[in-house]
Every structure is written in C-alpha cells, then in structure tokens.
Hints:
By secondary structure, the protein is mainly α. The chain has two domains: 1-39; 50-82. The protein has helices at 4-39, 42-48, 51-81. It is elongated, with a radius of gyration of 19 Å.
Amino acid sequence: MLNDDSIKQAGIARLASDLRAAKIELLSAQCATDRLRLQYSVEDIVSFGERHALKGAIASAGALCRFFSSLESQLNKAEHRD
C-alpha cells in the first residue's frame, strides 16, 4: 500500500516534470513572439492583425506575467529566508 511519503514524492516528481514541459512551451511562445516582433511593426500588427487573436494573446501574456510575478515574489522571499 502507498504511504503519504510515496504519494508526496510522486506529486513532487509530477510537478517537476510539468514545470520542465511548461518551460519548453514558454520558450516556444517566446520564439513565436520574437518572430512577430522582428517581422512586423507594432502598428502593422495592431492595424492588420485579427482583433480577437490579438486580444486573446494579450490576455494570455498578462495572465502568464501575473502568475510568474507571483512565483518570483515567493521565490525571492524563500531565498531571503535561506
């Protein structure tokens, strides 16, 4: 039978794996953003881009920024305690 420690270790391993996968996906998104930034002006993106797609991308970027800012804050607090 599984005990609490083995369940906790499995959860930690899953978290580490999910974090590595998210890092790769975020790097891909950053590359896609860089391609847009290098190929098109901000004015062209706003003028000719699909509004729905642009607003969705902005909302996603904002949510990512808030989430990772929260993680960064907690990480800084943890590092100051150590």
